[in-house]
Design brief:
- It is a single chain.
- It contains 13 helices and no strands.
- It is mainly alpha-helical.
- Helix 3 crosses helix 8, helix 5 crosses helix 7 and helix 10 runs antiparallel to helix 11.
Length: 283
């Protein structure tokens, strides 16, 4: 249940946030900092009401904080660079990355079927990035590289949540990494302080709504990933924001993005294959 709630919150938050990046806040570093600040502010009252205390294991919290800061920043940079109809299904790559990390670092063994599913996910991931030119050589570019880096960092972040949850309470895992991650992104201040001064408060409305949705998703994900990483990540990777974006492309094409029906059909089929393969891999 928590994984499905995470998917809904992340999907809605992504759409609202993407609208904010396109129409309200041009500087990704400003967006990134305010996002971390608002996330911490949103969590604090719930954590206090829930009886949050000091972490029982600071080392796991510090690692989670670093992973949170890096993963969150890479997400925002990819958020600005890549279409949401591409970025959303790429989330399915987290499941095979977790499986491969188990092979590399824990000595786990995969079946032939699992290897086939991993290959299917990566191949389908290439088709997700196709545009009107339908040229497979355009799949790998600087923008999509940001998306892939975010996926790598996100898989790391999700794994550290599981590790920290085994050593600390729910609210300690939810609150302290958000607070510490906000401090860790402070050195980026020179990249956005001018925009911070001159941006009107009204420009932050979309970002604020998006952050509230993402914060709810984060809290649900901590609960879900603390119980089961593989299955939860497969469900969380459901490309809900892609489906919403495709619907909006017909209703309000200037709001987010607009591609041909053929492009969206290819992306939708590839995303479906990726999700089903990830779901099979997580069993």
């Amino acid at each position: 249940m928590y994984a499905w709630l995470t998917t809904i919150m992340y999907g809605l938050g992504s759409v609202v946030g993407k609208i904010a990046t396109k129409h309200h806040i041009a500087n990704p570093w400003l967006y990134n900092f305010i996002f971390f600040v608002l996330t911490a502010i949103c969590i604090i009252p719930f954590a206090v009401a829930g009886g949050v205390g000091w972490p029982q294991d600071w080392s796991s919290i510090l690692w989670l904080s670093i992973a949170n800061a890096v993963s969150g920043t890479m997400f925002v940079l990819a958020f600005y660079a890549v279409d949401l109809s591409i970025l959303s299904p790429l989330s399915s790559l987290r499941t095979p990355l977790v499986a491969l990390s188990g092979v590399l670092f824990l000595g786990e063994r995969l079946t032939i079927l699992q290897w086939a599913l991993i290959g299917t996910i990566f191949i389908a991931g290439g088709f997700v990035n196709l545009d009107e030119r339908m040229n497979i050589r355009t799949v790998l570019n600087k923008k999509i590289t940001l998306g892939l880096l975010w996926i790598l960092c996100s898989a790391w972040f999700n794994s550290t949540i599981k590790y920290a949850s085994a050593k600390n309470g729910f609210w300690e895992v939810s609150l302290w990494p958000s607070v510490l991650a906000t401090i860790l992104v402070l050195p980026t201040l020179p990249l956005f302080y001018r925009d911070l001064i001159h941006t009107r408060i009204s420009r932050y409305h979309g970002l604020t709504i998006s952050t509230i949705l993402f914060t709810a998703g984060l809290l649900f994900s901590v609960k879900a990933l603390g119980e089961n990483v593989s299955i939860s990540m497969a469900i969380i990777s459901l490309p809900l924001s892609m489906l919403i974006t495709m619907a909006l492309s017909f209703i309000a094409p200037k709001l987010l993005e607009k591609h041909t029906n053929v492009v969206y059909a290819v992306r939708l089929v590839a995303a479906t294959v990726m999700f089903l393969a990830a779901l099979g891999l997580s069993k």
